[in-house]
Amino acid sequence: xxxxxxxxxxxxxxxxxxxxxxxxxxxxxxxxxxxxxxxxxxxxxxxxxxxxxxxxxxxxxxxxxxxxxxxxxxxxxxxxxxxxxxxxxxxxxxxxxxxxxxxxxxxxxxxxxxxxxxxxxxxxxxxxxxxxxxxxxxxxxxxxxxxxxxxxxxxxxxxxxxxxxxxxxxxxxxxxxxxxxxxxxxxxxxxxxxxxxxxxxxxxxxxxxxxxxxxxxxxxxxxxxxxxxxxxxxxxxxxxxxxxxxxxxxxxxxxxxxxxxxxxxxxxxxxxxxxxxxxxxxxxxxxxxxxxxxxxxxxxxxxxxxxxxxxxxxxxxxxxxxxxxxxxxxxxxxxxxxxxxxxxxxxxxxxxxxxxxxxxxxxxxxxxxxxxxxxxxxxxxxxxxxxxxxxxxxxxxxxxxxxxxxxxxxxxxxxxxxxxxxxxxxxxxxxxxxxxxxxxxxxxxxxxxxxxxxxxxxxxxxxxxxxxxxxxxxxxxxxxxxxxxxxxxxxxxxxxxxxxxxxxxxxxxxxxxxxxxxxxxxxxxxxxxxxxxxxxxxxxxxxxxxxxxxxxxxxxxxxxxxxxxxxxxxxxxxxxxxx
Length: 579
Known about the structure:
- By secondary structure, this protein is of the alpha+beta class.
- The chain folds into 3 domains: 50-281, 2-Layer Sandwich (Beta-Lactamase), CATH 3.30.450; 336-385, no CATH class; 391-575, Heat Shock Protein 90, CATH 3.30.565.10.
- Helix content is 50%, strand content 19%.
- Helix 7 (281-332) packs parallel to helix 8 (347-360), helix 10 (409-426) runs antiparallel to helix 11 (435-453) and helix 12 runs antiparallel to helix 13.
- It is found in: Cell membrane.
- One of its GO terms (molecular function) is phosphorelay sensor kinase activity.
């Protein structure tokens, strides 16, 4: 269906209206939403990395506290005595002195190390308990089953390494407060590696709260810390408690009754605790609403501009194009004197001027294009012909090497003289040669090869005087003969015959101009399997040169393994020139 330029302009400007609306109202907000989320994620990821580093540093400090007993010889000596029978051999004063060391010296050292430690507890292996607390809660719960507590068992399993204990109650102290987290370690004799006791330090969660407050959460963002079992250690708001299971599952988004949150998380390597920062989707939606407002205004402006452009452009553009179409139709009918009246100096006028120039030079351009095509075809022909000479010389010189190595100097001399005569033929600048000259060249080549193979190779050349003056591309047959010698006769263990013949096949149909020149190159050598798709440089060259010289010529090859190969060239006689 033919469409007018006015209709196309209408469709074009409709697209210029719809496309900006789609891009501005739909795609642009989506892009901004993605950009905002990426910026928030990137910002939160950087902040989270810094927070994780601070918490890891804090946990490292707590870790170092648990190795404090190793730095005091009197503390280690007292713990060794309490874990052996040597304790009963001490005098009451010595026992009192050792107990004072564990109840006073060690707690004072721990309190001096960290001011935010709420309490410490030391449990030697003899069942005694030494407790200190920053809030003066120094009395342990009577008959408290310390050895059955999860933190105690976890410290024993760590076997001397630090064990991080999640939030728990200080239920082993009378009147103790809740919400502490701890670090525990099994103290071992450095010499015998025998367990001496378990030490645990309780830290206030306020320290973590201060760290998280330092990252400056805003716009309703939340933060949480979960231990390695998914238990909540810290939450910045009451809504986080209901999200604990979703956070523990590793979800990137969590759903709360009032809002959805995008989650950025990081794991503390030392304790395997997870830190989670969540920012609400409502904050993104508020920014998105502002983007939509801006998009609507841009869409309305684009609509007005598009309508103005459509009215203006269609007014001065359609008529000149219609006149150009009428001029081109006259040229199409063969009126090379058609002329488009140019008015003004704008782009349409320049197009009209170019149209007039095109019409006036059309004949010249057609001739120039025709000559260019012929030149390109001749260049391709020369390039294909030039491939033959180095390939032919390479194979012939390889034959000379074989004669030289076998010590056949007389044959080598004859071969060199024959090669000199052949080179004079190949260096002739004529692109075509008569079939007689080509056959004589092939005959010399066969004689040259016969010097190498002696009785192993025989050849026959058969062509009638009728084909003597017919012109074909020079060196067209040599690659086929060379292939027959190298790939068919040379590998064969028995004597082989190479046959080259040329004749004219006349059509039996009266009045039909279908006479053909047929050239055949055949051998009874080893042959090859056509299914292997073997096609070397020589065969490819023959196909291309034959196609360039004779458009309707054909080339085919037939081969049977063990029986030989036959190559056939057929050229319509009407396309063949005479010398």
